[in-house]
Specification:
Keywords: Signal. This protein has 142 residues and is an alpha+beta fold. The chain contains one helix and ten strands. It has one domain: Immunoglobulin-like. The strands form two sheets. Strands 1, 3, 4, 5 and 8 form a five-stranded antiparallel beta sheet that branches.
Length: 142
C-alpha cells in the first residue's frame, strides 16, 4: 500500500505543473468571420479566467496565407448592454505568403461582474474594412 501511495504522489507531483499551467495559460475561443488571409494557430490568454479590473496577456501566433499588410489589430469587449469597448494595436507591417509571426497585447478586463463577449480582428492597412483574421470568445466576471 505504501508503495502505491508513493507512486500516486510522484505522479501528482510530476503532472501538477502541467495541469496548473494549462489552467492559467489557456487556449480559448474560436474563429469568426474574416477573409482568412491570416491563419491563427492558437490563441492564449494568461491568466485565465479573467478577473474584474485585472490584466491578462493575449498571445497568438499565426501564418499569412498570402501577401498581406496588417494595419491594426482591434480588441473589443461587448457588455450585457451590447456596448463595445475597443483597444487598438498598431502593426503597419507587410507579411509574405507563409510567413509566420506572433502578436502579444495586454488587455484590462471590465471592472463590473457580468457576461461579456470578446472579439479580436486583424485589419488590412490599405483597406481597413478587410478583416484578415477574427477570434472570439465569451467570459463571465464574478
Amino acid at each position: 500500500m505504501n508503495y502505491f501511495l508513493r507512486i500516486f504522489f510522484l505522479y501528482i507531483f510530476v503532472h501538477s505543473k502541467s495541469i496548473v499551467e494549462s489552467m492559467i495559460n489557456q487556449e480559448i475561443g474560436g474563429i469568426c468571420t474574416s477573409d482568412g488571409l491570416f491563419f491563427i494557430e492558437s490563441f492564449n490568454v494568461n491568466p485565465w479566467p479573467p478577473t474584474a479590473g485585472k490584466f491578462s496577456t493575449i498571445y497568438f501566433p499565426g501564418v499569412s496565407e498570402g501577401k498581406i499588410t496588417i494595419g491594426i489589430i482591434e480588441y473589443s469587449i461587448e457588455n450585457e448592454n451590447q456596448a463595445w469597448y475597443t483597444t487598438l494595436q498598431t502593426v503597419n507591417q507587410t507579411y509574405l505568403q507563409d510567413e509566420s509571426t506572433s502578436f502579444t497585447n495586454i488587455i484590462q478586463w471590465p471592472f463590473f461582474s457580468g457576461e461579456y463577449n470578446f472579439q479580436m480582428r486583424i485589419h488590412g492597412q490599405t483597406h481597413p474594412e478587410n478583416i484578415h483574421a477574427c477570434w472570439t470568445f465569451s467570459f463571465i466576471l464574478y
